[in-house]
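Data availability (excerpt). The following record was deposited with the supplementary files.
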Amino acid sequence: MRAKGDPLQGGSMGERGNIVVVQHPNRPEKGEGEIYLYTHFGGECLPSIVHQVLARRLRWDDEGYLTRMLFSALVDGDVQGDSGAGITSYLTDNGYPLLVLDTHKKRVSMRDAGFSDRSWTFEEFVRLDIDEDQPWLALGYDVEADE
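Predicted structure:
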């Protein structure tokens, strides 16, 4: 699914957003980390992307593979592209609440001012009724009210 305003479809860029996957090292003394999957033009679609990937019910316990599946859905076939999406270990730019996935807890949570208490198990998230036109509403975030 391509986001509205997709530059590959002739639209403009500027709907920045991130999916965050918590990384749990195999050695506890290393501490947790995070991988940020960044989109420059698809922030409004991130709940749908996470929903579609989790609905496959694959690799829920494997942060490496789940991260790759999420990024593949985020770039939607544009694996050779040199802009529009990226992977970092830190937050670069953002315009929406962060969607944070933790494979150990099997939870999706929203991280942003006022949303720290919003979280769902992976199973609960899959059961959400995500409206493709306004996917953030299912998470209790009104994009239009925030503009």
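Summary of structural features: The chain has one domain: 7-137.
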